Input
Amino acid sequence: MDKFEQILKQYWGFSKFRSIQRDIIESVYNGTDTLALMPTGGGKSITFQVPALAKEGVCLVITPLIALMKDQVENLKQRGIKATAIHSGLSSHEIDIEFDNCAYGNVKFLYLSPERLSTNLFRERLRKMKVNLVAIDESHCISQWGYDFRPSYLRISELRQILPSDVPFLALTATATPEVVNDIQEKLGFSDGKVFRMSFARENLVYLVRNVEDKSKHLLKIVHSIKGTGVVYVRSRDKTKEIALMLRKEGISADFYHAGLSMEIRNAKQTDWQSNKTRVIVATNAFGMGIDKPDVRFVVHMDLPDSPEAYFQEAGRAGRDQKLAYAVLLFNETDSLKINQRLETSFPPIEDIKRTYQALGSYLNITIGAGKGETYDFNLMDFCSVYHFNSVKAFNSLKILEREGYIELTDELDNPSRLIFTVEKNELYKYQVAHADLDRFIKVILRNFTGVFSQYVRVEEAYLSRLAGIPTGAVIENLKTLSRHKIINFIPKKRTPLIIMTEERLDEKNLRINPNSYKMLHDRFISRTEALLNYAKTQTKCRSQLLSEYFGEMDAFRCGKCDICTQRNELDMSKYEFDLILEGLKTEILKQPCSDEELIDSLKKNPDRVIKVITYLLDNGKISRNESGQLVWNKKQ
Output
């Protein structure tokens, strides 16, 4: 084994790399800026974790998803690898300590949310770190053409001014169209960079679209006919519970999941599903990030997502074990109407966006000219209640303000309680002697939590209660007492989204929403939804091929397994034979309209086979007859 394989075996237990993983690893290890396009489940994290472990120093990992960041840090720690995460949910003291551990300790991976990059504290501490690699996850966020643009990503290239010139950048994404691929490289300042692509085709994943009026009834049919665990995606929180209850009534082990549940409840539901105690999880798109369950046999979408990118990512959570799995989209004509309604709420008038911004400043009690770089707890529903806003329109107004670079809105954070001892051990001993009532409680903490003098550790009050044999309320009071006496710093748990003011609060006349940017965003939304509607409605093109072509893979083959390809299989001819006749027909018809006889004569194939393909193309609208009865190739087909 070479050193990369040794690291892979030591920490992950695998003996061989998958697909293009090794090519990417060698590229960044040799100091080359690299862009890797790998679909969901392709093993992106291995491509930066292995080369970073093979070199001295720390790897910076930039990701916008705080929940995913926390999951990856925990995953690395469980493998015996030192990692930490810095994001807006931490106190300034916690951030200070973690930066010290990265600069002077042996931390190998520092996960950062993008808004951290522009802070003076980070830039000062970065100069003291030996950075061996910068990995940018969800790198499509750097592109205005991307489906989830974040202005804070544009600051990433500024790191090159601080870091040595030989530190490579690795950009990772599962969903990038050709124009986004070019934009990522340009915005990150790649010089002689390399691009590695995994095929977007998933050979083991069968894409199906079912046009049905009663979606719940069809969902039951799917769950009964496909064995194994699955995910059912819906767009509303209420619907997750409603469908999970419907499945339970039919004797199916099901549960629901959405971002409105507490972290403890979400973790419990997720654990039950991952351990197969729950067979089907019904969820909003809050579910899935960072969850690597390889044996998911089906993913069903009851509603249309916002884009092919979102659909591809969510559907791709099925069959990561490379065994047969199904991605099913349930669709009917009412979905088209819902998309039009979604367009209205997704793009409030510019005046409404400005009104939301001014209300936000008042709600957070920020004066004009103040607030830049500050972080605030934020409750969307309370905000909307105070100012009588529609919650969906207010949320989308905030997202547009985010794209314009005025604010950052984080996902909902569940920050557990944390503590650190702030006194030396000899001072702590004196305190314990003087406060016998707290001595046993302090000993419980010291025996059960490591590193409490050098870094903040997470504590669960209920767990401490069991260890100490006292009520949870008493645990909280003890922690508060120790904090008041300056023995520990104690940060109680809280759960909230955060608003980060990336610019000082502006008055109404200085707040500008770029109309060109707004229009581009609006038009892009329409083009993405149209692409997804085309995917759902098509009756003539392989589903897998359609998705691959959307992401620029123009030479993708038909999968032979989706509902469109299966229709062709009913013609009783091989895919190769069908394609051969199809290409011949298309070539002749595009030259000029032809009669059936002329086509049969020109192709010199079995006439019965040719007639079958012609009939199929007529039935599916690929070709039609003109006034003279000749066959013509339909436009847009």
Summary: The radius of gyration is 28 Å.
